[in-house]
Design goal:
Length: about 170
């Protein structure tokens, strides 16, 4: 009777030999056959084009999500009283800081910071503070939200060119 370890060794050696033979065949075809090389280049270009299209689609979807979040926040409304604004601000800044710690919750963190910004009396000053304290990935999404919201009065204390580039068209 043949031992199990011998069967496993022979199987592994056969698989390794097959992989080596395929690698040698692939290399030979790549060097000798011009059609094979052409097909490899075509596939590489096709794959690069597909990745680029996917990246463009993801960017468009992200912008739509940001616009939807800003519109939804505007529909929900913001408090008008001084005490309510202060409490709303504190709650959303704290929520934004907690969410910003998780890279998968960037959009929610930026939305919380955006809502806090909407009720802050001098948004330009708050943006300067955000710029120094908030993570760049969250700040980029926040910049897109600010750029989308035409009703946000940033006041005279901020120069829009100081904001990080969000890549808006």
């Amino acid at each position: 009777m043949v031992q199990t370890s011998t069967i496993l060794t022979i199987s592994a050696a056969t698989a390794a030999t097959g992989l080596l033979a395929y690698a040698i065949y692939f290399d030979y075809q790549r060097r000798v056959d011009p059609n094979f090389r052409r097909n490899l280049r075509r596939e590489e270009r096709r794959q690069a084009r597909a990745e680029k299209e996917e990246a463009v689609a993801q960017t468009k979807q992200k912008r739509k999500d940001i616009q939807k979040a800003v519109e939804q926040a505007a529909e929900e409304g913001f408090p008008t009283g001084v005490n309510e604004k202060e409490q709303f601000f504190m709650d959303h800044v704290q929520k934004g800081e907690l969410l910003a710690a998780d890279p998968s919750r960037t959009m929610e963190a930026a939305l919380a910071f955006y809502k806090a910004l909407k009720v802050y009396p001098t948004p330009g000053d708050l943006i300067s503070i955000y710029d120094k304290t908030v993570d760049k990935r969250v700040l980029d999404v926040l910049a897109e939200m600010i750029a989308y919201d035409k009703n946000l009065d940033l006041g005279t204390g901020i120069n829009l060119s100081d904001l990080p580039s969000a890549g808006l068209d």
